[in-house]
Structure formats: C-alpha cells, structure tokens
C-alpha cells in the first residue's frame, strides 16, 4: 500500500489533507511532526511526500538531493513556491494554495504509485501495463501511451461505474481553470484512434455524459 508522508508547518492544512477519504482509500497517510520524524520517514518506504517551504529547510533539502542522486526517488510536492528547479521536486504550488487542486494532484500521484505495483489491467482485447506505459492487444500489437492516456485508462478501469467529465478532469488534470471539457474530449478522441484504428472494436464507451471502459 503506498504511503503518503505529510510534512507541513500548518497543522490545520495538514489535518485537512490527512482526513481526506479519497487519499485514505489509496494508501496510508502519515504525518511527520518535526525534523526528526521527517528524516526517519525519508529513510523508510514512502511513495509520495507533501512538504512546504518552511519545513523543507537546508538540511532536509540536502537530504532529498542526496537521495535523488543515489537513485531513491519518489514524487515530492512543495507548497509555497511558484516553481522550483530542485531535481527532487515533482510539483510546486504557490500560496494561497487551493485545497481542491492540491488534493487532486496528490491523489493523482498516489494513484500512479498504486499502478506501479498492480497487474496489467484488462479491457476489451487490450491489456494495460501502467508501469511500462503501454497497451498490448491480443493480436500482438503494442502501443506506447502518454502519461495522461495511461492515467485516463487506469482511472476508468479502476472506477466502479461510468465516470463523468468533471470527475475525470479533477482526478487527472486537477482543478485548473485553464482545463475544460474540450481537453478531455480531445484526449479521448486521440486515445480511441490509437486503440481502435488498426485493431478495431470499441474501447472507451460514452453514454449520458460519462465514460467507461469496454468490459
């Protein structure tokens, strides 16, 4: 089960994130209270670190750089910066941070961590290997997929029922005002052409404003 480590100076924000049912359903959420607990957590098995600039002091940054140089890498989300060029940082969020957007991006990375340890997902005549970012057809055809295409197929494959446009946009792209339903429709169209162009058969089904994968 993936482990999310929270290392935030703001206890209210930390509590709000830790209590999110969507994150608890994806893995274990641990709170590192202080530098000693954070240093110990970094030496353990964690899949994602959510930290702020106040907590990421010089010592912690040096620790993360050393880990990255040694090949022990996991996504690190940094709150309180417009952007960062640190090689260990996957994403940064300027203040004031929107909780909905932050949760959606955290959820995205947690889902990616879960995908890396799962068996290939089967839909129609295809098998999706999220770790290799490819789909293999029963006839031997193998397609390379983008990160968003893998995330879209995996989310639909793990979803209990059809997923609506807004849900998919929030889960895969996050709550971003620049992203609209046209973005989703374009990705679905291109993905369908990849999967159905040569091999044939429907792969992504659409009805009543929601998408689902072929059984």
Structure, explained:
- The protein is an alpha/beta fold.
- The protein folds into 2 domains: 3-114, Rossmann fold, CATH 3.40.50; 120-213, Orthogonal Bundle (Arc Repressor Mutant, subunit A), CATH 1.10.10.
- It is 40% helix and 21% strand.
- The chain is built from 8 helices and 12 strands.
- It has helices at residues 11-18, 21-24, 35-42, 58-69, 99-115, 147-158, 165-173, 181-196, and strands at 3-7, 28-31, 48-52, 76-79, 91-93, 121-123, 126-129, 134-137, 142-144, 163-164, 204-207, 210-213.
- The strands form 3 sheets. Strands 2-1-3-4-5 form a 5-stranded parallel sheet, with helices on one face. A 4-stranded antiparallel sheet has the order 6-7-8-9, covered by helices on one side. A 3-stranded antiparallel sheet has the order 10-12-11.
- Strand 11 (204-207) and strand 12 (210-213) form a beta hairpin.
- Helix 6 (147-158) crosses helix 7.
- The chain starts with a strand and ends with a strand.
- The model has no long low-confidence stretch (mean pLDDT 85).
Largest sheet: 5 strands, parallel
CATH superfamily of the largest domain: Response regulator
Mean pLDDT, all residues: 85
Which strand order spans the largest sheet, edge to edge or round the barrel? 2-1-3-4-5
Supply the CATH architecture of the largest domain.
3-Layer(aba) Sandwich
Q: Count of helical segments?
A: 8
Summarize the structure.
The protein is an alpha/beta fold and 215 residues long.
Features:
215 residues; alpha/beta; Rossmann fold; Arc Repressor Mutant, subunit A; 2 domains; 5-stranded parallel sheet; 4-stranded antiparallel sheet; 8 helices; 12 strands
């Amino acid at each position: 089960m993936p482990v999310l480590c929270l290392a935030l100076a703001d206890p209210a924000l930390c509590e709000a994130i830790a209590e999110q049912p969507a994150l608890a359903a994806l893995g274990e959420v641990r709170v590192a209270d202080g530098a000693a607990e954070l240093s110990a957590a970094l030496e353990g098995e964690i899949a994602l670190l959510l930290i702020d600039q106040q907590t990421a002091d010089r010592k912690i940054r040096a620790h993360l750089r050393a880990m990255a140089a040694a090949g022990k890498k996991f996504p690190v989300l940094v709150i309180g910066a417009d952007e960062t060029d640190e090689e260990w940082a996957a994403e940064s969020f300027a203040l004031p941070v929107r909780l909905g957007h932050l949760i959606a991006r955290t959820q995205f990375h947690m889902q990616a961590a879960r995908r890396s340890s799962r068996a290939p997902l089967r839909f129609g005549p295809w098998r999706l290997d999220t770790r290799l970012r490819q789909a293999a057809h029963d006839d031997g055809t193998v397609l390379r997929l983008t990160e968003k295409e893998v995330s879209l197929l995996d989310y639909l494959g793990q979803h209990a029922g059809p997923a609506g446009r807004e849900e998919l946009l929030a889960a895969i792209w996050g709550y971003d005002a620049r992203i609209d339903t046209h973005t989703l429709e374009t990705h679905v169209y291109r993905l369908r052409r990849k999967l159905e162009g040569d091999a044939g058969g429907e792969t992504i089904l659409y009805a009543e404003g929601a998408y689902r994968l072929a059984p």
